[in-house]
Design goal:
The chain has 230 residues and is of the alpha+beta class. It is built from eight helices and twelve strands.
């Protein structure tokens, strides 16, 4: 399935929504806008397969993208998700310029985004110290999130990870209802759907949550926090 590009999206109108670019000079704003395109992806579309550097710098306007790796056996490991207002900048930071690393990106919801050329962004980062400082800070935060996730995968049980995830999603959406399927939840956690389905049944039987098609409703937050070790 192919993405749908359009000229109706003007990056200049959205640039100020991303604090990363607040220190650009007028000329750099013109350059970045000239090398940025607007793209729409339908849910389930493969956005990128291949080297990290080839993905470009992604600015998410709406929707969700999943960034993950594939083992030789075809096993998937989710690195992170990109949502409204996020910028995927790792490919454009100069210290990754010589690293060859393959990733995959899929749209898990209908998504609209702007894609900036990697080399153009790198040139701007090299020329603008203030923007470069913001970019490195952004990249370090993203790397820290990935390292934390690896730590969770290695040293935290699936039960605790699921409880923590449900609480975190509830806090993010400011409600007790989480609009995710078991498959999507498994992708977030980097585990098998069968594991999530089994744990959801256990949580449901114990009165922690109530599940329906594509929805998880938290019933007992205190008990869920206890399961999460909070």
């Amino acid at each position: 399935m192919k993405a749908h590009s359009t000229d109706s999206g003007n990056f200049r109108e959205y640039m100020d929504q991303f604090a990363l670019w607040s220190a650009l000079t007028p000329q750099q704003r013109d350059t970045l806008a000239a090398h940025t395109r607007f793209v729409r992806y339908k849910k389930g579309t493969s956005v990128h397969r291949g080297s990290l550097g080839g993905a470009g710098t992604l600015h998410i306007i709406s929707g969700t993208l999943r960034v993950y790796t594939l083992s030789e056996e075809g096993r998937e490991f989710t690195l992170y998700f990109l949502r409204d207002g996020d910028v995927a900048l790792l490919a454009s930071t100069s210290f990754l310029g010589t690293i060859s690393y393959d990733i995959a990106i899929d749209a898990t919801k209908n998504t609209e985004l702007f894609v900036s050329d990697t080399e153009t962004v790198r040139e701007i980062l090299c020329a603008n110290v203030e923007v470069r400082a913001h970019a490195y800070e952004h990249a370090v935060v993203r790397l820290s999130e990935m390292l934390w996730k690896f730590h969770q995968m290695l040293f935290t049980s699936a039960e605790r990870r699921l409880a923590k995830f449900l609480l975190a999603e509830s806090a993010r959406t400011a409600g007790d209802e989480i609009r995710l399927t078991h498959e999507e939840t498994a992708q977030y956690l980097g585990t098998a759907r069968e594991v999530v389905s089994r744990l959801m049944r256990e949580f449901s039987q114990e009165g922690l949550v109530q599940t329906s098609r594509g929805c998880i409703h938290i019933l007992d937050r205190a008990a869920l926090q206890e399961r999460a070790g909070a």
